[in-house]
Design goal:
By secondary structure, this protein is of the alpha+beta class. It contains three helices and nine strands; from the N terminus they run E-E-E-H-E-E-E-E-E-E-H-H. Strands 3-7-6 form a three-stranded mixed β-sheet. A two-stranded antiparallel ribbon has the order 1-2.
Length: 123
């Protein structure tokens, strides 16, 4: 999928907006109703307030548009690929500290298992 697959219609201007970035948000954080800090790749933090009114936010630091993808529950991490194709663990913003607190050894073991499961990397 590309950013073009995720166009969002801006009701005010009538134009379609494309996200520059995507981030995952834990559903449990949205359900809790407390403010959720969303950290952009540039390091800026955008605080969102549930219930989510927008699925696209703009970073005040770099002005990139970020698409919020809410995942059910408290997932901790999702599996992704680094630019070089290696697996990586992407933290789900708003996940509990228990889910996010894994050691470097645990992280490496998980990534090695994923690499093994993916085999030749054509997945």
């Amino acid at each position: 999928m590309t950013a073009n697959d995720f166009r969002i219609h801006n009701r005010r201007s009538g134009e379609d907006l494309k996200p520059d970035l995507f981030t995952f948000v834990a559903g449990i954080a949205v359900e809790r109703g407390d403010p959720i800090p969303i950290t952009c790749n540039c390091g800026s933090v955008i605080t969102i307030m549930p219930p989510l009114q927008e699925e696209l936010i703009v970073c005040p630091g770099c002005e990139l548009r970020i698409k919020l993808l809410v995942l059910s529950g408290d997932p901790g991490y999702v599996i992704g690929r680094a630019p070089d194709g290696d697996p990586m663990l992407i933290p789900v913003q708003g996940s509990s500290q228990e889910k996010l607190a894994i050691s470097d050894i645990e992280r490496q073991e998980i990534l090695e298992k994923i690499k093994k499961d993916w085999g030749d990397g054509n997945h």
